[in-house]
From TrEMBL:
CDD domains tied to this protein: M20_DapE_proteobac
Protein's gene: dapE
Catalyses which reaction(s): N-succinyl-(2S,6S)-2,6-diaminopimelate + H2O = (2S,6S)-2,6-diaminopimelate + succinate
Function (record text): Catalyzes the hydrolysis of N-succinyl-L,L-diaminopimelic acid (SDAP), forming succinate and LL-2,6-diaminopimelate (DAP), an intermediate involved in the bacterial biosynthesis of lysine and meso-diaminopimelic acid, an essential component of bacterial cell walls.
Protein's organism: Methylocella tundrae
InterPro entries to which the protein is assigned, alphabetical: Bact_exopeptidase_dim_dom, DapE_proteobac, Peptidase_M20, Peptidase_M20_dimer, Peptidase_M20A
Protein's name in the database: Succinyl-diaminopimelate desuccinylase
Cofactor(s) in the UniProt record: Zn(2+); Co(2+)
Length: 389
């Protein structure tokens, strides 16, 4: 295992040294592809395009034939590092210090990609192909608009006959320490805008104007007055947050013509975007009292989903507990991830490094955690191909 772990550390540093800020690849997927090809994987680098969006590099790699077919998924793109001068080390130097690797994307999620790639390569090199197939789905569009990434890569793979049995996404699922948590689902995310029309006028002559602000305040109150639900067995209660209120009015003596509020809802498996829209429209209509309003919702590609606990989740938990001594909790908390696309093709869970420093200045991951994560993934592969039909 020490050789596998060393390979993971070297690969992690090589990946972090590629400044692959969305949508740039900066050579990251080429580094990964080279390692996979050396282990016997058949690789398929693919660039997806769509008008009005940046081109995005993606990588699909497979070793073996037939089933069971296990998939690791992840993203090589990272968020911008911010001011490099604020970092302890250059954010793309992958510096080793204090027992950790420092650099943008090491926690989210190049450390996990290096760990599962090293584990998958070692498994393949030991002859794992005779027991099924291992694939990697890697995108460069998770931190971006998620248009030319995983969703299109999954469709491409399906159309060429690829069928997956189970998937693990290497997102940083643990709040503070490795082994605390796996994600077995995610809440959905829906964005909306509420606009109230008024009539502009002088504040000294309110009878000649219609002030949209009091109407907007009342309608916002109607949206948030009652909880959407009280949660389910695996999900917290759905939550609506007002994120912006704006009238675009710099003057003190003018009644504005329009007022607008923007909001986001993180919703559980009791709702769909359609049923949420209907519920919120009903709440607004009940409180309308003559207000001239428009409420619209952005296209939604983030539906709530759940991978029900079963033998597969038991295998993942057992591998984690074996190497960390912790039995992870099964969670659906947090934001969205590319698992929302994968769930349409096979059961999917998420487990990676601790996320305490992700997207932060001085993002880092302990070397021992990357080593342990590599061992967890290696054990999972051995157990999976021995236990899952």
């Amino acid at each position: 295992m020490s050789d596998i772990a060393a390979s993971a550390i070297d690969l992690c540093r090589a990946l972090v040294q590629c400044p692959s800020v969305t949508p740039e690849d900066a050579g990251a997927q080429g580094v990964l592809e080279k390692r996979l090809r050396a282990a016997g994987f058949k690789t398929h680098p693919i660039v997806f395009s769509q008008e009005g969006t940046p081109d995005v590099a993606n990588l699909y790699a497979r070793f073996g034939e037939g089933s069971p077919h296990f998939v690791f998924a992840g993203h090589t793109d990272v968020v911008p590092p911010g001011a490099a001068a604020s970092w302890r080390f250059d954010p793309f130097s992958a510096e080793l210090a204090d027992g950790a690797i420092f650099g943008r994307g090491v926690a989210d999620m190049k450390g996990a990609i290096a760990a599962f790639a090293a584990a998958a390569c070692a498994f393949a090199e030991r002859g794992g192909a005779g027991r099924g197939s291992i694939s990697l789905l890697i995108t460069g569009d998770e931190e971006g608009p998620a248009i030319n990434g995983t969703e299109k890569l999954l469709r491409w793979a399906y159309e060429r006959g690829e069928r997956f049995d189970h998937c693990l996404v290497g997102e940083p699922t643990n709040p503070d320490a490795l082994g605390q948590m796996i994600k077995i689902g995610r809440r959905g995310s829906l964005n909306g805008t509420l606009t109230v029309k008024g009539r502009q006028g002088h504040v000294a002559y309110p009878q000649r104007a219609i002030n949209p602000v009091p109407h907007l305040v009342r309608l916002i109150g109607a949206l948030i007055a009652a909880p959407l639900d009280s949660g389910t067995a695996h999900f917290d209660a759905s939550n609506l947050e007002i994120v912006s209120v704006d009238v675009a009015n710099p003057a003190f003596n003018v009644i504005p013509a329009e007022a607008q509020a923007r909001f986001n809802i993180r919703f559980n498996d009791l709702w769909t975007p359609e049923t949420l829209s209907a519920e919120l429209h009903a709440r607004i209509e009940a409180a309308r009292r003559g207000a001239d309003y428009l409420m619209r919702f952005e296209p939604c590609n983030a539906l709530a989903f759940l991978t029900a606990p079963d033998r597969f989740t038991d295998l993942v938990c057992a591998a984690i507990e074996r190497h960390t001594g912790r039995r992870p909790s099964l969670s659906t908390s947090g934001g969205t991830s590319d698992a929302r696309f994968i769930r349409a093709y096979c059961p999917v869970v998420e487990f990676g490094l601790a996320g305490a420093t992700m997207h932060m200045i001085d993002e880092c991951a302990p070397v021992k955690d990357i080593r342990t994560l590599t061992a967890i993934y290696a054990t999972l592969l051995e157990d999976y191909f021995s236990s899952v039909p």
